[in-house]
Design goal:
Blueprint: H1 2-15, H2 19-39, H3 48-72, H4 76-92, H5 99-113, H6 121-132, H7 138-149
Helix pairs in contact: 1-2, 2-3, 2-4, 3-4, 5-6, 5-7, 6-7
Length: 150
């Protein structure tokens, strides 16, 4: 489980006295804890790895946006700190599908659902998210689905 990997990495980073990694892992654990608290009121329990993967993907997206903003603003030292955090976050994410694999998976789903036009995009995206959440960037998947249905 991803949660166990994160705990083991934190212990290893603390023993190695790696302050940057330890701080990044603590941020990850705080975000996961917040998500756990949010889910206490949920009616159905979600898969733990999927929840953690969603949290990590959200954190990674935030870091990428911050890096872009810092680089535009000429703040290289802050961008470098965000890049270090992003590397730690990405180390816990499951391997992402490349574009060809994503296109093939989306093509299969479109064929299964019998989707023919952009009007069916919602159904297709729901199926893609259900099957490939954590393995595929949903922002890119949206573009690929739209392209396939056009």
């Amino acid at each position: 489980m991803i949660r166990d990997d994160i705990k083991a990495a934190q212990i290893a980073a603390m023993k190695a006295r790696d302050a940057e990694t330890t701080a990044a892992i603590r941020l990850i654990q705080a975000a996961i804890k917040n998500r756990d608290i949010e889910l206490r009121t949920a009616s159905s329990a979600a898969d733990d790895d999927m929840v953690i993967s969603e949290v990590l993907q959200k954190m990674a997206k935030q870091r990428r946006e911050s890096i872009e903003m810092f680089e535009k603003g000429g703040r290289a030292e802050l961008a470098q700190a965000e890049k270090a955090e992003l590397a730690v976050i990405e180390s816990f994410l499951p391997k992402q599908m490349d574009e060809d694999e994503a296109r093939a998976a989306i093509g299969t789903i479109i064929a299964e659902l019998g989707a023919a036009s952009v009007k069916d995009m919602g159904r297709v995206m729901a199926a893609v998210k259900e099957r490939f959440s954590g393995k595929m960037d949903m922002g890119k998947a949206s573009g690929l689905v739209k392209q396939a249905l056009s």
